[in-house]
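The methods section describes the discrete structure representation at length, but only in general terms. What matters is that the chain and its backbone geometry are given together, residue for residue. Nothing conveys this as quickly as seeing an actual entry. For illustration, here is how one protein appears when written out as sequence plus structure tokens:
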Amino acid sequence: MGDTRKTNRRTTTRRPDTAARSTLDEDADVTEPDTTADEAQELEATNKYVTATLCGEEIRVIPPGAWRQSWQRLLNSGQVDSFAGLVFHPDDYDLYEDIDPTNEEFGDMIAEAAERAGESLGKSRGPAASSRRTRRR
């Protein structure tokens, strides 16, 4: 007979902040502003940081393509400090707190990080509508 035990789909729990940071290279090189698409993909694959300017200060940020969905939800729900604690280099978080940026300044910095990583933060338009009209029966 078969195994009648139920298996739990989620076998381990982990804190996103420590689990994600443990895979990052703490002394990772930063990219230059004119990163090519290939370099951006390599950067994302190796989980290195990109730099972006926040109120005149350089901050190291995990490239937006490497963000976990739970991190994005924090940002979307307005929990900016928690989000920053996850995506900023640990050595740069205190600087972020000292700067105490406005939402606009923070958004500009995130957009710059995405640009330097060769990514777009724009909203997806979704699939294009069909050019054929459908007939109702």
Observations:
- Helices lie at 16-22, 37-45, 69-76, 80-87, 93-99, 103-116.
